[in-house]
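Figure 3 (text version): structure tokens given as input.
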């Protein structure tokens, strides 16, 4: 983890302070302690710029992107920035493959991880996020040499140990509500578990569509057999020329969404609500008795 002096050394032009200042806002040099996750198919240039312009910290989703696609997404985001020095991050999935890994795990970078890292470094990103898997030591070293911080998403305490051993600067404990692709432990349990390094486990949730419904209604046995053989059913269907409707992965938290709001309003609402709750909590400090 970063020492305080290292944090100070890596700071750039300070952003305007928001009502809530945390170690995260300090090390990432952002106004509010709110991050846009590097979600596949969602966190592109437009959304990333909207969140960054609102004072949050944006992470561009690079899952299964080619180097050129990632470069264009970052370029699109920067063109939408209200100021050129807004900090941002880049997310890439580096799942473990081969011995000791799940048979269905595939190289999401298609052998082009080094190129994706080069683009991240050249883009001026403040943060690199591995959304699945621990980045190799040489990748962490390359990013650190360029002054880029490294974050690892973890869904299990043992993942946190491996990430820290690899030299990452930040660990993000992602509960199953956040889509469940790193584990099946709820945030309320995972965060304290990561802090104390206790053990537990993992599945996956997505928004149903016609393609997925067909899996459940007609192809359940086939899907189970293919997965047991290390074959990704969707990849097999693509290769066979079958129509594939790509599903949107999501977590249980999606059930709380009732309105479609602008990114700026969401950021402002989160900051306002957090400030109200923190102020409310302070009311109870030092009081001999509380009043209803």
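Below: residues designed for each position.
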């Amino acid at each position: 983890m970063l020492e305080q002096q290292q944090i100070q050394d890596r700071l750039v032009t300070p952003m305007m302070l928001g009502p809530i200042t945390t170690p995260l806002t300090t090390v990432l040099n952002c106004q509010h302690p709110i991050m846009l996750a590097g979600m596949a198919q969602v966190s592109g240039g437009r959304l990333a710029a909207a969140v960054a312009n609102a004072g949050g910290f944006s992470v561009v989703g690079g899952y299964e992107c080619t180097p050129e696609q990632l470069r264009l997404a970052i370029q699109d985001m920067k063109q939408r920035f209200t100021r050129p020095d807004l900090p941002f991050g880049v997310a890439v999935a580096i799942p473990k493959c081969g011995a000791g890994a799940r048979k269905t795990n595939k190289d999401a970078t298609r052998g082009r991880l080094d190129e994706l890292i080069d683009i991240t470094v050249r883009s001026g990103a403040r943060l690199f996020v591995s959304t699945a898997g621990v980045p190799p030591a040489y990748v962490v070293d390359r990013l650190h040499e360029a002054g880029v911080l490294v974050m690892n998403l973890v869904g299990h305490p043992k993942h946190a140990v491996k990430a820290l051993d690899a030299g990452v600067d930040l660990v993000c404990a992602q509960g199953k509500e956040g889509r469940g692709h790193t584990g099946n432990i709820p945030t309320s349990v995972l965060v304290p578990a990561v802090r104390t390094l206790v053990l537990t486990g993992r599945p996956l949730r997505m928004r149903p569509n016609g393609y997925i419904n067909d899996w459940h209604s007609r192809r359940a046995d086939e899907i189970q057999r293919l997965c047991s053989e290390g074959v990704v059913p969707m990849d097999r269907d693509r290769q066979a020329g079958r129509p594939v409707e790509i599903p949107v992965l999501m977590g249980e938290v999606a059930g709380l969404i009732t309105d479609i709001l602008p990114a700026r309003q969401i950021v402002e609402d989160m900051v306002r609500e957090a400030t109200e709750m923190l102020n409310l909590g302070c009311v109870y400090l030092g009081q001999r008795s509380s009043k209803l």
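The chain is about 40% helix and 10% strand.
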